[in-house]
# Entry
Amino acid sequence: MSETVVTRFAPSPTGFLHIGGARTALFNWLYARGRGGKFLLRIEDTDRARSTPEATQAILDGLEWLGLDHDGEAVSQAAGADRHAEVARELLDKGEAFKCFSTQEEIEAFREAARAEGRSTLFRSPWRDADPSTHPDAPYVIRIKAPRDGSTVIRDEVQGDVTIRNDQLDDMVLLRSDGTPVYMLAVAVDDHDMGVTHVIRGDDHLNNAARQMMIYQAMGWPLPVYAHIPLIHGPDGKKLSKRHGALGVEEYQRMGYPAAGMRNYLARLGWSHGDDEFFTDAQAQDWFDLNGIGKSPARFDFKKLDNLSGQHIAASDDAALLHELQAYLAVTGEPPLPDAKTALLAAGMYCLKERAKTFPELLEKAEFILADRPIEPDEKAAKNLDDVSRGILAQLTPHLQNATWTREELEAAAMQFAESIDTKFGKLAGPMRAALAGRAATPSVFDMMLVLGREESLARLGDAACEKG
# Structure
């Protein structure tokens, strides 16, 4: 029986959940969920000065919005400091690490001499093979004994085999002189103790893999599978930064992108499955594999995000979409919708969600539902309500009053009336939109009347007909 796949996402809580981090989390989530495995969350909060509870909460909120559920409780890396130190001491006992008493001044003097002589500045501690009886009673760090000869090969599922000469690896510090563990040690110990089988992370960590592998090998632990994914660049091919626009996941929620559209877009950012662009979560989990990840940096493209978001809004279940719309209003500081408006939105969702790329666009189309009488037309719509148009609306209203309130009947009544005054229905549509919604761009006038109902629709048309310009 094959082992259970265990992946992890391990962000540092020093700010918001970056869009690149969100994609890393998504890749780990998809890989685990598609194989019946576990997706774990570890908060790498060892930098006590920069780690904040607010940043941790922002990460949790971002993952929750994206729908990336993790198994078990989130693990705090700082809470495992005693365990990390224990491994450093175990390596010391096994002869795989050593006490180094070199001071910062001695290390800097070594490097200056090396620079002057044109040789490697990689520090070679004189204490590596020193007899313990010669150890002074002074502060020391614990360093791992890096291999000196040959090379280390990182077998990477995305980058291929990456070879690093061992003479490029230093005897890395594991435990500082104050007894605190370094980040590299903490990561390796946590990944092992959490049973992580696949380390999927940004390729800015590729060199870290060789250093973390030293700890695995010295402890006799089985190595995880590594997959280092390229970073995300802006449309100009430069590393994604503030000048390219939103960086934090919560900003995309506030801009009104649906979570499903964001998941789909992030999955396609650097990974592909044939020519498939639009897909569901189930398909993504079924299809996602490490060999579909490209080696080149992906480019963030708002047009593609908009396109996929629109497709997901159109394909969404109405009730789920309404629920997410209410959550969008909450994060943007808008009041919740009254029950009556919510019911109308639910009834009208079929004609609102087509061709809306974001929730603000959907709400703009829903203005006819959200507005209350008397309807105040905006500047564009007001142009369709001159005295002649108002007169036509006054004549039209009785024809609609007598119609059965179905689309077929309403269309037939409107067409017949247009014919009777020798005009095309298109000439009626503009004034009707202005009367019903106060907007020039709206869903079909018949959809609006069906959603609003007979009484409200006729009242709005009547208001516009009475209002002389």
Summary: The chain has four domains: 6-76+232-303, 79-186, 316-365, 379-466. The first helix runs from residue 19 to 33. The chain has 20 helices and twelve strands. The CA atoms of residues 94 and 218 lie 9 Å apart.
